[in-house]
Amino acid sequence: MKILSKNLKEQTVKLLVETPEDLWHIEHVIFPGNLVRSKTMRKTSIKRGGEYEYGEKKPMVLTVQIEKIELRTDSATLRITGLIVEGPENVEKSYHSMEFEIGSVLTIKKDNWKKHELERLEKAKVKKSLLLVCVLDREDADFAILRESGIEMKARITNHDKENMENYHKRIISYLNGSNFEIIVIAGPGFERENLSRYIEQNDKALAKKIIVEHSSANGINGIHEVIKKSANRILKETRVSKESNYVNELMARMKSGGLAVYGPKQTENAVNMGAVETLFISQEKINDYEKLMEVQEKMRGRVVIIGNDHELGEQFLYIGGIGGYLRFKLDF
């Protein structure tokens, strides 16, 4: 994601979408009522009497007040629908849908940008090396990238000469070295994963340091899902889900031991107002309920962390109220 401009006096941020993950981040910072301005296609219209006459669709810049948001991961598009509030005079001010994809430019306007929303966009600018998974047997090697927003299948290398496995291995290594990844998981049924791992160890020491070898009972997308599920604790430690799970685990451990923790709406609000909360946790589902409290937390120089509910511990956190925090000091309520 590229932040093209940011004007907090006018409460606008202009963005360029560069990856599918950018759409996922944008979905989490826009809400019904926000304004989005972008170039789009729309029919011109002329009002004659009490009716409109419509012309052809033309490119134009419109501003829409959001009512509905839909992220389509299968096509890597973000669709927003709402009422047109600003546009050319020859356009009927009715409902309109905009679709954003890689390469799209949009300007978001809010009544008040939250600190955690701006931080999310800033973090999305940083392109981290992602996890690459390679699942193979003697015939095919499938590659996929694990992103925060899901799994993306990338490529397949087919072995056309099983009597010359070295050429197959060289082609796989060439693909692995052609991308920038900090961790590469090699897996698959049978023994080919070990054969490839040994070949890499013997011929490319630098690449070998990035390799984790896992077993899977299948290849293709099924094998990739199996590897990720089984190896989550090790290979997902730097991802959003893992970080959020660690936060919730620590919060629950502190709650259980009577340590420096608070949870529940009333207790957490009191603690924030006293400046006692070091890190405030809010469920993604509860953001609209606690916007003012997050503002108070930020004024107290405290940290705000949003916990998604799209994983097990995120659901548990939502179940216990969706709000809590680490304390700076012990409180007696």
Question: How would you describe this protein?
Answer:
By secondary structure, this protein is an alpha+beta fold. The protein folds into three domains: 2-125, Pelota, domain A (SH3 type barrels), CATH 2.30.30; 131-235, 2-Layer Sandwich (Nucleotidyltransferase, domain 5); 240-327, 2-Layer Sandwich (60s Ribosomal Protein L30, Chain: A). The chain has eleven helices and 16 strands. It has helices at residues 20-27, 115-125, 165-177, 192-203, 205-208, 220-230, 232-235, 240-257, 265-273, 291-299, 312-319; strands at 2-7, 12-16, 35-48, 51-72, 77-86, 95-100, 105-109, 131-136, 140-147, 150-158, 184-187, 211-213, 261-263, 277-283, 303-307, 323-327. The strands form three sheets. The chain has a seven-stranded antiparallel beta sheet with strand order 1-2-7-3-4-5-6. Strands 10-9-8-11-12 form a five-stranded mixed beta sheet, sandwiched between helices. A four-stranded mixed beta sheet has the order 13-16-14-15, with helices on both faces. The longest helix has 18 residues, at 240-257.
In short:
With 333 residues, this protein is an alpha+beta fold. The chain contains eleven helices and 16 strands. The chain starts with a strand and ends in a 6-residue tail after the last strand.
Taken in chain order, the helices and strands follow as EEHEEEEEHEEEHEHHEHHHEHEHEHE
Per CATH, the superfamily of the largest domain is Pelota, domain A
What's the count of strands?
16
Helical segment tally?
A: 11
What is the structural class? alpha+beta
Straight-line distance between termini? 44 Å
Provide the CATH architecture of the largest domain.
Roll
Percent helix, as a range, is 25-40%
- Strand ordering within the main sheet: 1-2-7-3-4-5-6
Q: Any low-confidence stretches, pLDDT <50, length ≥5? A: none
Q: Can you summarize the main beta sheet?
A: 7 strands, antiparallel
**Tally of separate domains:** 3
Can you tell me the CATH topology of the largest domain? SH3 type barrels
Q: What's the average pLDDT?
A: 87
CATH class of the largest domain: Mainly Beta
The coarse overall form would be flat
Instruction: Report the β-strand fraction as a percent range.
Output: 35-45%
